[in-house]
Write a structure and sequence with these properties.
By secondary structure, the chain is mainly alpha-helical. It has two domains: 45 residues; 38 residues, no CATH class. It is built from four helices and no strands. The longest helix is centred in the last third of the chain and has 28 residues. The model has no long low-confidence stretch (mean pLDDT 87).
């Protein structure tokens, strides 16, 4: 009886080890962990450059927005003497 349970437990352990081996061969978790670590270091090292690019884009969009707002304010008829300039040109 004890030998039989030991034999089934050993068979189950061997099946589990076979499945684990196949999973490790198929998915290769060490390789994926190392590639993730390398990507994390790349992102960490290029963080300052990305931050500067975002600041540049944000400044550019702010300046474009200011230009549009000044154009709208210049051509608005309801503000004092602003619309008359473009109406006289027409």
């Amino acid at each position: 009886m004890f030998q039989q349970t030991l034999q089934t437990d050993l068979n189950r352990l061997m099946n589990f080890l076979g499945f684990a081996r196949a999973f490790i061969i198929r998915k290769n978790p060490l390789n994926s962990m190392s590639s993730g670590l390398v990507e994390m270091f790349k992102n960490f090292l290029t963080m300052n450059k990305k931050r500067n690019m975002v600041k540049y884009r944000l400044h550019y969009h702010h300046s474009q927005l200011r230009k549009m707002e000044t154009l709208i304010a210049e051509n608005n008829e309801h503000s004092f003497l602003q619309g008359k300039k473009i109406n006289e040109v027409r």
